[in-house]
Write a structure and sequence with these properties.
Elements (H helix, E strand, L loop, with lengths): L6 H30 L1
């Protein structure tokens, strides 16, 4: 991967990955709450 050639795509993908990570964390937290109840 040559990040220097497509910096915009790289930063966009990075933001997507961060968003997915946050969504996955919140989903796991919700599942744990349901299981704890």
């Amino acid at each position: 991967m040559k990040a220097g050639l497509l910096p915009d795509l790289g930063s966009q993908r990075e933001k997507q990955m961060l968003a997915w990570g946050a969504a996955a964390k919140s989903t796991v937290t919700l599942q744990r709450r349901v299981l704890d109840d």
